[in-house]
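Mods, move this if it's the wrong board.
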Amino acid sequence: AGAQAQVSYGIKAGLNLPKIAFSDNNGSTSTSTNFYLTGYADLPVAPSFSIQPGLSLQGKGGKWGEVNNTDVTTNLMYLEVPVNAVYYIPAGAGNVFIGAGPYAAYGISGKTKAGDIKEDVKWGDNGYKRFDAGINTMLGYKLSNGFLINGGYSFGLTDMSGSGNGSAKNRVLSFGVGFQF
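Not the wrong board. Structure tokens:
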């Protein structure tokens, strides 16, 4: 990506390993398994440096472990808007990229599963707050043909708990592949 480089677009998809971290010395949930799908624009602003705004469907949540001998998992789906600053380092047949930036997200659906029982997540005062915001980080490798592999970590900064009993924040480790046009 050079100073005269044109705007390009990309899509990424992959595996999310989310968990929920608690402030009241209760640690966190175990990681669960979810997915993400992201579309983004790559806007070069200087040689080897771009801003990447995007729109993403992000699966978050966590595994609560066993409650009454039953595994309990909460899956939360968010519509997320990340804005990452990305630095490219030439390496071999492509570029290593490293980036970070803020995100804002809105909870659009969720389910809690306990054994064979599934229940819709309650959003609002007695459930989870819909709004989430935090910091994304990313590291990956993009080939000159546009194919890329990447990993990242999202660090939620907002309290998503509607209960008022300590805070709960999203944490997401992700791995994926994509293509930049």
